[in-house]
Design brief:
The chain is mainly alpha-helical. The protein contains eleven helices and no strands. The structure holds pyrroloquinoline quinone (PQQ). Pyrroloquinoline quinone binds next to helix 9.
Amino acid sequence: MTTSSQPASPMTPQEFEQALRAKGAFYHIHHPYHIAMHNGQATREQIQGWVANRFYYQTSIPLKDAAIMANCPDSQTRRKWVQRILDHDGYDGSDGGIEAWLRLGEAVGLDRDVLLSEEMVLPGVRFAVDAYVNFARRAVWQEAACSSLTELFAPQIHLARLDTWPQHYKWIEEEGYGYFRGRLSQANRDVEHGLQLALEYCDTVEKQQRMLEILQFKLDILWSMLDSMTMAYELNRPPYHSVTQQAVWHKGRLL
Ligand SMILES: O=C(O)c1cc(C(=O)O)c2c(n1)C(=O)C(=O)c1cc(C(=O)O)[nH]c1-2
């Protein structure tokens, strides 16, 4: 094995931030399934499939964040990090992101029970999301915390949806867009904290290279989710399509 491609000295914090940001080239905003949704070319079934499958990501994010907190001995970090769980689960009478996503489901014509039952969650989506939660359980907390840094690129994707979906998909009820609106400020705040942790923690060549690899792993998760949806809802090749039309795949959380 050769290590000749390793740089001799660590990047400066500015250079390292640039290297993290450059990973935006591989964000799922560039996936053909996402581009089709953005351009108004997605069918109702494709939008519904995306909303129902992404619900599994939404409900897994608090599990992932709780796993990070469980491994983090620093109370100052936990005080900040706990806000991420509250954002999704709701607190003090505010509903939170999971409820907002259920409303998005209703706005695209999916009963909330369909989302909650996870019956539409494709195995490939489940495996990708579970990999994220399991990584957060095993990794040192700083690495797990910084794997959330795909959120660097998220405000742009939420804004783009708010911009184009109402024009293209008149059948989606307006109140479904609350989730994307709420995430704009939340994602920016999360990124500020995540980036600060990454720049402080990654002070060696090895840590910087590993963090870039972890960010790529997270990008792979988001991309693979859309690959699974492409197979099922665009190419009409859901799991077992060659043997049955029925959705026989497992439905429960086996994490
Ligand atoms: O809609 C999106 O494209 C998108 C992407 C991501 C992301 O980049 O991981 C998140 C979200 N949304 C999101 O809503 C969210 O709450 C969130 C939390 C995290 C994380 O890794 O902790 N990513 C994301």
